[in-house]
């Protein structure tokens, strides 16, 4: 996601740009997009990108002013959105996707990912969260 609130630069966007420079292994296509922090743009753009690329894996990254580690999210919520986006808009329903599930759980075992990254001995702390927050 792009900048929002007190974050003039979204650190996750900087990290994704670095990953794009490095690339992934041969045969793996990496598509990188900076998504504006705007409910209505996200509702249009994300489905269009899924349709365009038919991805096998999508990783959304964001930033938290409270996080002190790289945080792997186990689920994303669809309800309880009360904050205004960069356009000063908030859905009246407080839902991202009308009629969508309350929570979408990752099919990736984040506990295993966390253990594997930690075992690499990198100078990065990785933790797990069950609450990806809301804008």
UniProtKB/TrEMBL annotation:
Pfam families: Peptidase_C15. It is an enzyme of class 3 (hydrolase). Keywords: Cytoplasm, Hydrolase, Protease, Thiol protease. It is found in: Cytoplasm. GO terms for cellular component: cytosol. It comes from the Eukaryota. Its EC number is 3.4.19.3. Removes 5-oxoproline from various penultimate amino acid residues except L-proline. This is Pyroglutamyl-peptidase I.
